[in-house]
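User: Can you predict the 3D structure for this chain?
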Amino acid sequence: MDPERLQALLEAVRAERVPIGEALQQLRELPFRTLEFARVDTHRHLRTGFPEVVFGEGKTAEQIADILVELSKGGSTALATRVSPEAAAVVIARLPAARYLPLPRALVVGPMPAPDRGRGLIAIVSAGTADIPVAEEAALTAELAGNRVVRLFDVGVAGLHRLLAHRSEIEQAEVMVVVAGMEGALPSVVAGLFARPVIAVPTSIGYGANLGGFAALLSMLNSCAAGIAVVNIDNGFGAGQMAAMLNRKRDL
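Assistant: Here is the predicted structure, written as structure tokens:
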């Protein structure tokens, strides 16, 4: 349940606009709703500040739709990642309020929240154009958590002048998410140039010795630059969520 909706419900009970029995009926939906194939965590927004996210890969379109329907009942904006265009078409036919973003392969139900939950700006930086889908997943996640985001794409180490051209924008950021495939060197460069926490995201983009992202992952884990944390291969969502938590205002 969305925290603002829960607060409104409690205030309505206090003002005797909503009977206690009706409020109890709504609260029975916490902490989860049981489906035949899933237990939908409707309590996660209250615990962590971000609703449960549906990992679409490996699920049928019908399962994704069922879970999104349940999540959207609580008033929160719901997100499903790793959704194919074919599955998205099935979900949208059943849930017309959903919208599909093909680049990050994500489904969103509900409005984009106001960008007022973060202390500052989150910069999403990609080494190459091929890394953009993972970077966009990170950017979308951070935006859905109520953050201001700037995107700086295709600024990798093959042409560092492209990165330095955006120095002023990067210096305004509170947190940086740096996405790179191939040898995964860009996070080390960025962390060595700027006094900001860097969340490094290795991608599976690269030739054979990239080993599906393992080469980039190991490069990032072995970085000599300080202030780098590394998430899993292609995990744009995890990076965006971590950036949102680091950037979150302390009074929320």
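Residues 3-109 form one domain. The radius of gyration is 20 Å.
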